[in-house]
From TrEMBL:
This is methylated-DNA--[protein]-cysteine S-methyltransferase. It is an enzyme of class 2 (transferase). GO terms for biological process: DNA damage response. InterPro entries: MethylDNA_cys_MeTrfase_DNA-bd (IPR014048), MethylDNA_cys_MeTrfase_DNAb (IPR036217), MGMT_N_sf (IPR036631), WH-like_DNA-bd_sf (IPR036388). Its EC number is 2.1.1.63. The keyword DNA damage applies. Residues 104-182 form the Methylated-DNA-[protein]-cysteine S-methyltransferase DNA binding domain. One of its GO terms (molecular function) is methylated-DNA-[protein]-cysteine S-methyltransferase activity. Pfam families: DNA_binding_1. Keywords: DNA damage.
Length: 197
């Protein structure tokens, strides 16, 4: 499993000074595009999307970081994906660094989402309260739709009061992510029990 540490992108910085490394890989949810920025010897993930049409994710990445140099790096991005989606469950925690690029409100919502534990959920109302704006329920939904780092910024852990699971990444994908986390937790518990014996 992993835990996320977030950094907010400084909007005053010139994107022309940045190199963004990306790669397209298989994941438990199909083809994905992941991208990162190297910052102080740390790889900070700034993009993770799942798309049957691979160019769609890359196009979205380039639009978000217009002016930056975009370079394919299959080796390092593969390592990131393998750490995020390990083949063998482990109780060890892997730290994931995220770089959030959005409005002040969006980044606050994304930071709040990143704090929701594996296998748990919060309502849109609870998320709105967590960013000190309890009436901004619809705005929370908008921030979820604008989320560029799927799964790691876990929109799938956000639910409405009536149990609706619809969001940008799609209801089916959201349910798949929820089930993936539940199964991962079960397998981690099973592995831990076996180690104790």
């Amino acid at each position: 499993m992993f835990e996320c540490e977030t950094t907010t992108f400084d909007q005053s910085q010139d994107l022309a000074d940045f190199i963004i490394y990306y790669g397209s890989h298989e994941s438990p949810f199909g083809k994905c595009v992941i991208a990162f920025i190297e910052d102080e010897n740390e790889k900070k993930i700034c993009h993770l999307t799942f798309d049957k049409k691979e160019p769609g994710g890359i196009k979205f990445l380039k639009l978000r970081f217009l002016g930056a140099k975009i370079v394919e790096d299959l080796d390092n991005t593969k390592d990131l994906i393998q750490n995020i989606f390990p083949k063998k469950p482990s109780k060890d925690t892997y730290k994931v660094n995220l770089l959030l690029k959005g409005t002040d409100f969006q980044t606050k919502v994304w930071e709040s989402l990143a704090k929701i534990p594996f296998g748990k959920s919060k309502t849109y109302e609870q998320i709105a309260k967590s960013v000190n704006n309890p009436k901004a329920i619809r705005a929370v939904g908008g921030a979820l739709k604008a989320n560029p780092i799927h799964f790691l910024i876990p929109c799938h852990r956000a639910v409405s009061k009536n149990g609706c699971t619809k969001n940008k990444v799609g209801a089916d994908l959201k349910i798949s992510m929820q089930e993936y986390e539940k199964n991962l937790l079960k397998n981690v518990d099973k592995t831990t029990d076996e180690e104790k014996q």
